[in-house]
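INTERNAL AUDIT FORM
Audit reference: QA-55
Scope: verify that the stored structure record matches its stored sequence.
Auditor: D.O.
Record contents follow.
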Amino acid sequence: MPRPIRRHTPTHADGRPLTITFGEMREMGLRDMLVYCHCGHHVALSADRWPDDVRLSDIEPRFVCKGCGARGADIRPDFERGDGRLAIVDHWNLRSTQIEVKGANR
């Protein structure tokens, strides 16, 4: 019986999967991204500050959550392009949350 085909997913040295570049995201017509902390805080950001050749996964370790202090985040393209102000609301107490990029000079 033949073995199933195993797909190789390219990863960073630390094991995180490689994601699309900002250029590929822009080619799809997307200009915004959603940044999620592992504690549940999240923020919607414009992706205009990063160049086309940078991968979303390249900047994930640079985010620091101001709510819990955790470093690292999950970044996704914002496919819905909804109201960005709604994406930064902490639903538990309705105060704004902030996630910042450490060392981002771009």
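Auditor finding: record pair retrieved intact. The radius of gyration is 16 Å.
Action required: none
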